Amino acid sequence: MMTRLERGTTPGGATDIPVIELRDVHVVHKARTGSLFRPDRVHAVAGVDFQVSRGETVGIVGESGSGKSTLARVMVGLQRPTQGQVLFRGEALRHGSRDRRTLGRAVSVVFQDPATALNPRMVVREQLIDPLRVHGIGDERSRLARVRDLIQLVGLPLSALEVLPRQISGGQRQRVAIARALTLEPDVVVADEPTSALDVSVRAQVLNLLTDLKDELGLGLVFISHDISTVRYVSDRVAVMNGGLIVETGPTCEVLTNPTDPYTRTLLAATPSLL
Ligand SMILES: Nc1ncnc2c1ncn2[C@@H]1O[C@H](COP(=O)(O)OP(=O)(O)OP(=O)(O)O)[C@@H](O)[C@H]1O
């Protein structure tokens, strides 16, 4: 079973129980540079309800500083909310180490820059095997078989397993990061600006890879971007963030063709091709 990559869900359609549900989540950071004239706290997420199920792609769009990445960190268990609840498959998390481990296995993340997300001194094979070892999954033989399947699934040759991250291109590195995110057969992948650091010529390929994998594996995909046209291209539903709040949410084509919130209208107006 170790090399199994398909999951038994309805491709293209959300399943009923959300994998992750956030209820009135707040995150307050201590400001990096507090001063007399600047507040010493940042309310990065200010009361957000959000959910994602297997089989759907939910886009989160908003300008820099709107709280998207902080929200992503809450979803993958890297950031504990200051207030509010995170439910995993309907059960409230208590954010202990056991909960973090469960969440870490079921919800994975692809960051913007694969150069910093990957270990520069480890060959790709070891980076992909590592999560399987940490979670005590399979034996070395079955782990290697799974890693060989994964690298091909993301469109790279088997020889890519033996290289260091700096020996391959940015697009190929992001494919490795995506393979790594899939190692533990997650239910949901949170992709935080996954194409922003890439050369324009390979962005579409990486986007298509993510959406193909989501369909093939029946994953839930949370796609975070400041770029509304990219979000429109991949998402079934969209949430628009501004100042730590989701100001508007709904089916992507509805929200983007008939926005009701003034901020969404402003965002759209800044992307003339969508009007
Ligand atoms: N660890 C932190 N410590 C202090 N402030 C933080 C921290 N992380 C984020 N912030 C602040 O919280 C706010 C929201 O940041 P966040 O990174 O979540 O937004 P974002 O929409 O993802 O923006 P970007 O795309 O620029 O990362 C910003 O004002 C940011 O400066």
Extract low-pLDDT stretches: 4-12
- How many β-strands, per DSSP? 10
**Strand order across the biggest sheet?**
6-7-8-3-9-10
CA-atom Rg in angstroms:
19 Å
The helicity comes to 25-40%
Termini separation: 48 Å
Q: Are any ligands bound, and if so which?
A: adenosine-5'-triphosphate
Q: How much strand? A: 15-25%
Query: If you average the pLDDT, what whole number results?
Result: 90
Q: Outline the biggest β-sheet.
A: 6 strands, mixed
Order of helices and strands: EEEHEEHEHHHHEHEHEEHH
What global shape is seen? globular
What is the count of helical runs? 10
Describe it for me?
- The chain is built from 10 helices and 10 strands.
- It is an alpha/beta fold and 275 residues long.
- The strands form 2 sheets. A 6-stranded mixed β-sheet has the order 6-7-8-3-9-10, sandwiched between helices.
- Helix 4 packs across helix 5, helix 5 packs across helix 6 and helix 6 runs parallel beside helix 7.
- It is globular.
- The termini are far apart.
- The chain binds adenosine-5'-triphosphate (ATP).
In summary, what is this structure?
The chain has helices spanning 68-75, 97-106, 114-117, 124-134, 140-153, 170-182, 200-217, 228-234, 252-257, 262-269, and strands at 20-30, 41-52, 57-61, 83-88, 91-92, 107-110, 188-192, 220-225, 237-242, 245-251. By secondary structure, the protein is an alpha/beta fold.
Task: Set down the secondary structure blueprint.
Blueprint: E1 20-30, E2 41-52, E3 57-61, H1 68-75, E4 83-88, E5 91-92, H2 97-106, E6 107-110, H3 114-117, H4 124-134, H5 140-153, H6 170-182, E7 188-192, H7 200-217, E8 220-225, H8 228-234, E9 237-242, E10 245-251, H9 252-257, H10 262-269
Parallel strand pairs: 3-8, 3-9, 6-7, 7-8
Antiparallel strand pairs: 1-2, 1-4, 4-5, 9-10
Bound molecules: adenosine-5'-triphosphate.
Family: Belongs to the ABC transporter superfamily.
Protein name: ATP-binding cassette domain-containing protein
Keywords: ATP-binding, Nucleotide-binding, Transport
